[in-house]
Design a protein that fits this description.
With 318 residues, this protein is α/β, with parallel strands linked by helices. The protein folds into 2 domains: 204 residues, P-loop containing nucleotide triphosphate hydrolases (Rossmann fold), CATH 3.40.50; 93 residues, Orthogonal Bundle (Helicase, Ruva Protein, domain 3), CATH 1.10.8.80. The chain is 44% helix and 15% strand. The protein has 14 helices and 11 strands. The strands form 4 sheets. A 5-stranded parallel sheet has the order 2-5-8-1-9. A hairpin with a 2-residue loop joins strand 6 and strand 7. Helix 11 packs across helix 12. It is globular and about 70 Å long. The mean pLDDT is 89.
Length: 318
Amino acid sequence: MDAEALKTLGGALQSELSRVIVGKPDSVRDAVVTLFCGGHLLVEDVPGVGKTTLAKALAKALGGEFRRVQFTPDLLPSDVTGGSILNRTTNQFEFQPGPVFANVVLVDEVNRATPKTQSALLEAMEERQVTVDGVTRPLPEPFMVIATQNNIEMTGTYPLPEAQLDRFLARVSLGYPDRSSEAAILTDQQTTHPLQTVSARATLAEISAAQAAVRKIFVHDSVKEYVVDVVRATRDNAQLALGSSPRGSLYLMLAGQARAGLEGSAFVTPDHIKAVAPLVLGHRVIVRAEARARGATGPSIIQQIMGTVATPTAFRPS
């Protein structure tokens, strides 16, 4: 699959999602970028702005097996991964797969479960496998977790541990729609929900091929060094208590490749990196309390950092 085919496939997916997520083209594009990277997506915002709708629409648009887990305070890790159950006919324990064994797993309100249950996703998200009772079982390919999260100030939420946040390639925030978009939503959903009309615009094989093609998009050495400089700058920023991990460097480059593919480019430019940096790095940093009090956020600080790092001028294939 070449860059032009990636652009065509990405455009079809974005078009399908935009029929459901009205007036949020940037969030739709970022979701497709995450999919093409083979990464996981965290959708964070206040209740009722369409977080779950985005996740369900994306799952339907790319086909494959879809499972949903509603995270609650009493959810157990085995409710996610599965466990061994005694078969009374054979008198043997048999493994019953949990909902994580699917191509697309919607984890709804991930921060309402306890940290122990949240941690049940760590191995699945990073290694695409689950270990239960000492046996490791691979997950289907492609595999994507789409988690929704209410703001941590909301009642009954547990903040996600940094180790789990780091495993999400991207975090998006939908925000409230503008006036015209909200009026359009009322019209669209007056008699039926647009989700019912969403159809698959890709096959699992096409998604896997797209993910492989993204990794082959050319990245000049100068752009790789630019990525490293940006990530290292987060570790020295006075507004941040903790900078991005090396995983952030890998995901930033990969997201830049996916963004280039969506635009039909055969190589990554610094502008592609600038476009995805707040998306990829914003949730990987910890903002100091005094900076938060001034209204600073992870993505806003990443934007500031991008303006201080020298931009390479040579990035085309030779």
